[in-house]
Amino acid sequence: MNVSASQSPRAPLRGHPRRIALVVLGLSLTAVLILLPLVAVFYYAFREGWAVYWHHLSDAETLHAVWLTLLAALVAVPVNTVFGIVAAWTIAKFDFPGRRLLTSLIELPLSISPIVIGIAYLFVFGMQGLFGEWLSDHDLRLVFSVPAIVIVTTIVTMPFVFREVLPLMQSQGTSEELAAISLGASGWKTFFKVTLPNIKWALIYGISLTFARSLGEFGSVAVVSGAVRGETNTMTLQIHMLFDDATQTGAFAVASVLTSIALVTLLVKTWVERREARRLAEGTGQNSH
Amino acid sequence: MSQQRVIPGFGYTLGSTLLFLSLATLLPLGALVFKAAGLSWAEFWSYVSDPRAVATYKITLTSAFISTLLNVALGLLVAWILVRYDFPGRRLLDAAVDLPFALPTAVAGLTLATLLVPTGLIGQLFAPLGWKISYALPGMVIAMTFTSFPFVVRTVQPVLADLDPHLEEASANLGAGPFTTFRKVIFPELLPALLAGTTLALVRALGEFGAVVFIAGNLPFKTEISSLLIYIRVGENDYAGAAALATVILASALVLLITMNIIQGRLYRRLHG
Q1: Are residues B3 and B64 in the same domain?
Q2: Number of structural domains chain B divides into
Q3: For residue A165, what are the contacts with CB-CB under 8 A and spacing of at least 6?
């Protein structure tokens, strides 16, 4: 999360045609690339009216997909929140060799194709995989099933809390924790009373981003789910299926739900950054630089 | 080193981080490479040099490369106006930059595909000109540009904001025009961050799946990307072929990340000693 305050004041546009041209160009390109698709989601979803929209959303298969997607998020979010905090704490508060490598490895799921992650999962738990025979001997099915969706979603969204929390923990250093501990606080107490309040806003954004991304995961889930209608279809898989069926309004109805959640995530981010900027401006956060 | 002893929990936190990381990513990726390593060299080569596979490499690289060039230009422009100028809508623009991070790629793909088909709201403007956007390279480039858009902006923005304004004043006082000042003073300072953002955008575009499959039409030899071919191989139960291709994709992403990391480190050291 970017919390550094800008040093130079922003220049006004009035009377500077070149500045105006740059701003107009930047705004219009972003509007076409980003805002137009955003508006289009809701336009296509509601084009046939509320009743049709509601009819598509309350479809049994769609509701099942919503439930399954929420289930995956309900596991991925808490697991990755705990993992993100623990990993960021390890890297930010202790000095040990290989910290940069460890950071890169944790962020790896951001850089490789979700298809590769999905198929890698198959090679561990699938029939062709490392544990395939053992699992089938014990009648356990970890591919083309609900657990597969949950596990893969958790893997793909692993880096988000970590990435938001780490820079803040690093910039705050260890002085406050050292002070608390030298005054006799336990490790847990230090974490809850000192570290957690310092990172809480970045953490909130990290959690909401993890939530949005776990609901929206597509590629890796497509590989491991088997995409059985009404059984192992998540919301994004349902969108793809409705798109293939040419059920445009249905696809956009599901998409509008995911888009609304993405918008809420952005609102959280804006709100968190404003709080952070205010905290820096008030001078209560001198330690943050 | 003494800090390590004072703050408690080093062993537990490092241990659980490594354990979770190993189970979640290193074990599956290791299993993938292990599977591919079980193939003979001739088998491996026949899978990865298959003409259909080679066509997907070319298509993926071409569209990812073009989209990254677009993202560098657009990202620099947006970061510049966000940091330097005061204008109505600036906060909205700043928030909008992150939308592709938060929006599921399947939603982006669905929407862009629907807008850009010849009968869609945008596509119909270009259809009379004979331009094909959906189910062709331009559509894939647009989808990749959308999903990678935040990377350049968000890496360049903080560096630009922290740049010492006196450098530019000095340059201007010495008679340099704004373009020369940007090229000689600002750009070299931005370069390490720009390179980092560009790498992330490129790697993301190379691996993008959700947004592209909706818009590409997925015709073999024409608009089929490598990720999709792996997915198709899995669907055909051709696990060996899928493992071989996935290993190529994984290895090229890692090589790209490591190379750019080294170059970036060198640039940074040259700038700051």
Answers
A1: no
A2: 2
A3: A84, A85, A88, A199, A202, A203, A206
Does residue B154 share a domain with residue B27?
A: no
Cβ separation of A219 and B209 shorter than 8 Å?
yes
Question: How far apart (Å, rounded) are the C-alpha atoms in residues A265 and B272?
Answer: 37
Tokens representing B151? 């990377």
Q: Does residue B96 share a domain with residue B79?
A: yes
Q: With contacts defined as CB-CB under 8 Å, which chain A residues touch B104? A: 212-213, 215-218, 236, 258, 262
Do B267 and B188 contact (CB within 8 A), yes or no? no
Q: pLDDT at residue B266 above 70?
A: yes
CA of A90: how far to CAs of A166, A205, A250, B93, in Å? 10, 20, 45, 35
Give residue B1's domain range: 1-32
Mean pLDDT of A242-246: 90
Q: What is the mean pLDDT of residues A161-177?
A: 89
Are A222 and B231 in contact, with CB atoms under 8 Å apart? yes
- Nearest to B180, CA basis, from B191, B167, B171, B189: B171
For residues B136 and B4, membership in a common domain is answered with no
Residue A283 has pLDDT above 50, yes or no: yes
pLDDT in tens, B23-33: 999 999 999 99
Verify whether the Cβ–Cβ distance B89 to A27 is below 8 Å. yes
Structure confidence at residue A223 (pLDDT)? 92
CA–CA gap between residue B238 and residue B65 (Å, rounded): 29
User: Which residues in chain A have their CB less than 8 angstroms from residue B87's CB?
Assistant: 13, 23, 27
- Residue B82 sits in a domain whose CATH number is 1.10.3720.10
Q: Is the pLDDT of residue A289 over 70?
A: no
Q: Which DSSP category does A245 fall into? A: T
B88-111 pLDDT tens trace: 999 899 999 999 999 999 999 999
- Is B2 found in the same domain as B137? no
